[in-house]
Specification:
The structure holds 2 protein chains of 2 kinds. By secondary structure, chain A is an all-alpha fold. Chain A is 67% helix and 1% strand. The radius of gyration of chain B is 24 Å and the shape is globular. Classes of the chains: A mainly alpha, B mainly alpha. Chains A and B meet through helix 1, helix 3, helix 4, helix 5 and helix 6 of A and helix 2, helix 5, helix 6, helix 7 and helix 8 of B.
Chain lengths: 310, 296
């Protein structure tokens, strides 16, 4: 790996290969970021996996005890909450792929054309995303307040009194009530991604299609949709990842209750470690979540970084 | 190619259908009306929150949520700030954000620069390893992170919050900026080098200025994310004196939530800095934020 050619079958006019001097020059630029990343992110993550093979209360005075796969066995067979949490996380992912993604796409398509108040409308849709999830949780808890909250007051005012609910207190509704708040905050983000993607639709192609007599629907199907494909992939992967991460909203609105009906994997892992003092089970839950995330992220990264050799 | 996408002006080139058709374009009007209605629905929670923030406790329990207050209780803002210890927690959050956001961006940019412009073996693998870190749930690492900070003696302190914040912000920024730096033409960097510019100079005087739109977008994203971060803060901070804004909001809404006027006033005030940053940098947003992540 001295000069040229070794890894460079690319453009003949600019032979550029791996060069030891260059690699060394990179070191000082990489070191600070790498140290922080490894010490405060990568290592704790790997350590979670290690802890999943131990039984440990988390107290310093106590030594972790090696128990092999026992935590996993307990998690899958004897933990009454794990499967609820897993099911809710999957429901959350599925609903997020269906609702905020579709809505975000529709709004982006609408707000991509020149029209009165376009920038204001974009700002209004995006605004909730700027608020902290924990703040959004406080806002929506107020909206869902059974007696003084806006939702039940509105239903009563329009004569739908019988529809009024304990939105967050009833296990049948709680998860969906929390999810509604996440739609409100999530659509802006999806919209921005799709707007960025729509900028990459070649205007020449749109014009050419129109000259050829294509209608709006045909232009959309044959020009816009194919051009949006990479954006859609990004939106889908980010939506799934963000759904698996959901934490603040649930903590702030229900804390996982009532009766664990809003429990999700990220929160359950946290609760096992810090509230129940079972770090081993918390680590095992974290590991399951890690494996789920990696199974999605790694193929995406392979795709995203493909052909980056230049 | 990502950089060219950024330079393109925002979607002004989409004419509203064929111009020859003179009669009123009902489709466009219908679309506009439905978008306006969507925006109104999106704004409703804010309107209700605001109307509650300016009501007295008596007005909250007797008047409907959408009614104007009988008595405008602007005092809720000052009292809420007092009750929730807003000045102290706000200062903590500001301190963390002001140190963390620029420093994190600089470190990420430095790493992304060498990964994007200097070819060495396995640079893609390094990018991928960083990127993975931005895509796995934070909660996975919280237990061990608690132990790490405990053994470093940094638990329940602001420096002890800034370090993991840096670590959790850098991966995404490296992934995004890598795309931008890669798009810088090789010839440009080569010729600067031929003229004797050092690696650092090329970074500082050529590459960094070119990445400005991306840096601006990442700045907003990171400022908002840092200001709003909850999971790490709730794990690592214990004493109220060190609380950041999200912990203050959570604390307020569980402890003092009987005073809804104050609660809602507090919620509004807690978001003011991010609103300012968002409005200041908004124009860079759609252009720069994600263009790097979307490959054509």
């Amino acid at each position: 790996m001295t000069t040229h050619t070794s890894t460079a079958p690319r453009s003949a006019s600019h032979p550029r290969g791996v060069n030891r001097g260059r690699g060394l020059r990179a070191v000082p630029f990489l070191v600070p970021a790498t140290l922080l990343y490894v010490y405060f992110l990568a290592y704790p993550m790997v350590d979670s996996v290690r802890l999943s093979f131990f039984e440990w209360s988390g107290f310093r005075t106590e030594e972790p005890v090696w128990v092999g796969l026992q935590n996993y066995v307990r998690l899958f067979t004897a933990d009454p909450v794990f499967w609820t949490a897993a099911k809710n996380s999957i429901i959350w992912v599925a609903l997020s792929l269906a609702l905020p993604v579709t809505l975000g796409l529709l709004i982006a398509l609408g707000l991509n054309r020149a029209m009165l108040g376009r920038n204001t409308m974009r700002a209004v849709i995006y605004l909730p995303a700027v608020f902290a999830p924990i703040t959004v949780a406080a806002m929506w808890r107020w909206i869902y307040n059974p007696t003084l909250g806006a939702l039940n007051q509105f239903l009563t005012a329009v004569g739908l009194e019988s529809w009024a609910q304990q939105w967050l207190g009833d296990p049948t509704f709680a998860l969906y009530s929390v999810f509604a708040a996440s739609v409100w905050t999530g659509v802006g983000f999806t919209m921005v991604l799709f707007l960025a993607g729509l900028q990459q639709v070649p205007p020449e192609l749109v014009d050419a299609a129109k000259v050829d007599g294509a209608g709006r629907w045909q232009v959309f199907r044959n020009v816009t949709v194919p051009a949006l494909r990479p954006t859609t992939a990004v939106v889908v992967i980010l939506t799934i990842i963000n759904s698996l991460k959901v934490f603040d909203l649930v903590v702030g609105m229900t804390g996982g209750g009532p009766a664990q009906s809003t429990q999700v994997l990220a929160l359950w892992s946290y609760t096992q470690s810090f509230a129940n003092h079972t770090f081993g089970l918390g680590g095992a839950t974290a590991t399951v979540l890690l494996i789920m995330s990696l199974a999605l992220v790694v193929p995406y990264l392979v795709w995203a970084l493909r052909g980056d050799d230049r | 190619m990502t950089a060219t996408a950024v330079a393109r002006p925002t979607g002004t080139r989409t004419p509203d259908g064929p111009r020859r058709r003179r009669p009123t374009d009902w489709t466009s009007i219908g679309l506009w009306v439905s978008l306006v209605i969507t925006c109104l629905i999106w704004a409703i929670p804010f309107i209700f929150m605001f109307l509650t923030a300016v009501k007295t406790q008596a007005d909250v329990s007797t008047r409907p949520v959408w009614a104007l207050p009988e008595l405008w209780a602007w005092g809720n803002f000052a009292e809420g700030a007092q009750t929730g210890d807003l000045w102290n927690t706000g200062l903590n959050s500001l301190l963390v954000s002001v140190i963390k956001v620029p420093l994190g961006l600089l470190l990420a940019a430095a790493a992304a620069y060498v990964l994007g412009t200097i070819r060495f073996r396995r640079h893609k693998l390094v990018v991928a390893i960083f990127a993975v870190g931005s895509m796995v749930p934070i909660q996975i690492a919280l237990g061990p992170l608690f132990n790490t900070m405990l053994s470093l003696g940094l638990l329940d302190s602001l420096p002890g919050l800034i370090l993991p914040y840096l670590a959790f912000g850098i991966p995404y920024q490296i992934f995004m900026l890598y795309g931008f730096f890669r798009a810088i033409p090789e010839e440009m960097i080569e010729s600067a080098r031929v003229e004797g510019a050092s690696t650092f100079r090329i970074f500082w005087q050529i590459c960094l200025p070119m990445a400005k739109p991306a840096l601006a977008a990442l700045f907003i994203l990171d400022f908002v994310a840092t200001w709003n971060e909850y999971a790490i803060a709730v794990t690592l901070l214990q004493s109220q004196a060190n609380y950041t804004i999200p912990l203050a909001v959570q604390n307020f809404s569980t402890q003092f939530s009987t005073d809804y006027g104050q609660l809602n006033a507090f919620i509004f005030m807690s978001a003011i800095p991010v609103l300012i940053v968002y409005l200041m940098f908004q124009r860079y947003f759609v252009q720069g934020a994600f263009a790097g992540s979307v490959k054509g």
